[in-house]
Amino acid sequence: MRRLVLGLAAAAALCAALAAPAQAQFPDRPIKMIVPWAAGGDTDNIFRPLAPLLQKHLGQPVVIANVAGASGTVGAREAKGSPADGYTIYAMHDYIHLVHYAGLTDISYRDFDPVCLVSATPSVLTASPKTPWKNWQEFLADAKKRPGEITVGATLGSTSHIFPASIEKAAGLKFKYVSYEGLAPRMTAILGGHVDLTDSNLTQKGKVEAGQLKFLAIATEQRDPELPDVPTLKELGLNIVYEVVRGLVVPKGTPAAARAKLTEACGKATAEAEFKESMKKQGTRVAFLDAAKYAAFLDKIDAENKAIMTDLGLIKK
């Protein structure tokens, strides 16, 4: 019996010794990054320049898979159902809280383990060039005269819905919502004059300067230096500060060693001057948080989003 026990112990020690190098080699093959929106949208435009920098610091290719549909929930479901081995990472933003509370999906941020917070992008209320308004005051007067007639392009149940809905409630207005999957199709719609308003960001500054769009108000504490002539919602009398935050998560149960390597690579990638410059072009600030701080941050904004959804009468869960 003693020999058997010793033999089993030796075998276990051998297995552990063989397993350790394999774990230490993570990653040893390409990593898939699931982006739950179409290519060319704002989320894609933030994570696409991050991918090669992650690759640089991980030593393996990071390949983006755009898995769009159902307000981002198709991509969320694929990410949740992927093996928890570190080889699938999920590009997530605030929508994960909103669609859950709106009753659009049973998936929540708690189905994932956090890796890192990457960025934060302030929202800008944006109008079609075909609208008659030159500024917020003209828009507000017209919207009050025509309740339910001003159309808003939005991904229902997501941030592009909650932002104008918050304005709608605070200003005592009533909008008509038209659903689109992500920023790219929304921008096509508003550029074509198919909707009057949408939520966008500073990436559209060039189109505003070219007369293709109008910025009515920005949801920041103070005016943005890049848009000195665009008023904040706060100075217009609406206590609304709103930004879309984006980060990386992995399926629940991913090994701690793999998560640690991903977090380390994320910190190095987001600190690169190249990435910071890319984010500046996206009207976005780099907002890196490590896994532990991101976990606490997710709990905080989940509670905030639940309160917003409740206040707007949109909560279903």
Overview of the structural elements:
The chain is of the alpha/beta class. The chain has 2 domains: 158 residues, D-Maltodextrin-Binding Protein, domain 2 (3-Layer(aba) Sandwich); 95 residues, Periplasmic binding protein-like II (D-Maltodextrin-Binding Protein, domain 2). It has 11 helices and 11 strands. The protein has a 6-stranded mixed beta sheet, with helices on both faces. The chain has a 5-stranded mixed beta sheet with strand order 7-6-8-5-9. Helix 2 crosses helix 9. It is globular and about 65 Å long.
Number of domains: 2
Range of helix content: 40-55%
Overall SS class: alpha/beta
Shape: globular
Largest sheet: 6 strands, mixed
Please trace the helix and strand order, writing H or E for each element. Answer: HEHEHEHEEHEHEHEHEEHHEH
What secondary-structure arrangement, pairings included, does this model have?
Layout: H1 2-24, E1 31-35, H2 42-58, E2 62-66, H3 73-80, E3 88-93, H4 95-101, E4 112-122, E5 124-127, H5 136-145, E6 151-154, H6 159-171, E7 176-179, H7 183-191, E8 197-200, H8 205-209, E9 214-218, E10 243-251, H9 256-270, H10 273-281, E11 285-289, H11 291-311
Parallel strand pairs: 1-2, 1-3, 6-7, 6-8
Antiparallel strand pairs: 3-10, 4-10, 4-11, 5-8, 5-9
Helix pairs in contact: 2-9
Question: Quick recap of the structure?
Answer:
With 317 residues, the chain is of the alpha/beta class. It has helices spanning 2-24, 42-58, 73-80, 95-101, 136-145, 159-171, 183-191, 205-209, 256-270, 273-281, 291-311; strands at 31-35, 62-66, 88-93, 112-122, 124-127, 151-154, 176-179, 197-200, 214-218, 243-251, 285-289. The protein contains eleven helices and eleven strands.
